[in-house]
Design a protein that fits this description.
This protein has twelve helices and no strands. By secondary structure, it is an all-alpha fold.
Length: about 325
């Protein structure tokens, strides 16, 4: 039986790699400013300062775009929870601490920019948005009790989770920009998606280094994340409703989760080509392969149901009014 490495050992062994990837990130990151992405000329006062409060007809965004923008923003708003998790599972010293601080600062720009865009342009109800932010940030986000009980290495579980989650967030932001029917929103969300891509590359490559250091342990964490993946927005107000709208309209759906997030990342790590797993690791890899095959079937079923639903909706809209 292969000895399990503790988080302290993993963090220590991987810190030189973290420093190299941090420096790579800093050389690639773009210095941008939220105020440059907000259409300030659309703004005017609300009632408290002598103007008019928000009413639904003021929004330029359709229902789907509003749902996606709110979901994306509230996800970014929960940054205090994500920072707490990262600081606790990584380290408060050296390259790890520098990375966590830098990542937090970059993520903070995302919520600033999206909120300014929505409030200035009256894209959504600002009162409802603020109430949802208060509720979501108060609830926070973290591993479930079941996840904590199953895994003793929080670091590996965290690094595996964000490898997929950052990519999922990139996909969601990019596709949200496309449905807003506003070049200003599209430009803003392209900028944010580019940040998320750089974050994903750091985490994905760190997870790859962990696979080289502790193959069975890292594989077990990766498989657990894939099999029990939760978007960070889960638990926010109206998450299910908004998530269904986003899935129905191709912003983030099961097919994208499989084809654009799970499979590319697994292929990058060459999980099914590696020969350094123990027999127990090979068995866990087979379980993961079976899960991905089963999930493919679930994806096809979802697509068939969605296509039938959209076809019925289109048919009804074409029928003349009686």
């Amino acid at each position: 039986m292969v000895a399990q490495l503790t988080d302290d050992v993993l963090l220590s062994e991987l810190e030189p790699t973290a420093e190299a990837y941090l420096n790579r990130h800093l050389s690639a990151a773009v210095d941008w400013h939220p105020h440059d992405y907000v259409p300030w000329e659309r703004g005017r006062n609300f009632a408290a300062t002598g103007g008019d409060d928000w009413v639904p007809g003021q929004s330029r965004l359709g229902d789907v775009a509003q749902a996606a923008m709110i979901t994306n923003l509230l996800t970014e708003d929960n940054l205090p929870s994500y920072h707490r998790q990262a600081a606790g599972n990584f380290s408060l010293d050296g390259a790890w601490a520098t990375w966590v601080g830098r990542w937090t600062a970059e993520e903070g720009r995302h919520s600033i920019a999206i909120r300014d865009y929505l409030v200035v342009g009256r894209g959504v109800d600002p009162v409802a948005l603020e109430r949802a932010r208060m509720e979501h940030v108060t609830n926070g986000f973290g591993p479930t009790a079941e996840e904590e009980a199953r895994h003793k290495t929080d670091f590996l579980l965290s690094i595996a989770y964000v490898s997929f989650q950052e990519l999922a967030t990139r996909v969601s932001h990019r596709n949200t920009g496309k449905v807003c029917d506003d070049p200003v929103a599209d430009r803003l969300l392209q900028r944010i998606a580019a940040d998320e891509n750089l974050h994903m590359i750091f985490y994905r490559d760190m997870c790859g280094a962990a696979l080289d250091l502790a193959p069975d342990q890292a594989l077990n964490a990766i498989a657990a994340v894939v099999e029990n993946f939760r978007m960070p927005g889960q638990g926010m107000p109206n998450f299910r409703r908004n998530g269904v709208l986003m899935a129905k309209h191709g912003i983030y759906d099961p097919r994208q989760h499989l084809d654009e997030v799970l499979l590319p990342t697994v292929r990058k790590w060459q999980l099914f080509e590696r020969s350094d797993f123990t027999p127990a690791g090979e068995q866990r890899r087979e379980q993961l392969a079976n899960y991905l095959s089963t999930f493919e079937g679930q994806v096809r079923k979802f697509e068939e149901q969605r296509d039938r639903l959209l076809a019925r909706k289109a048919q009804k809209s074409e029928q003349p009014a009686s």
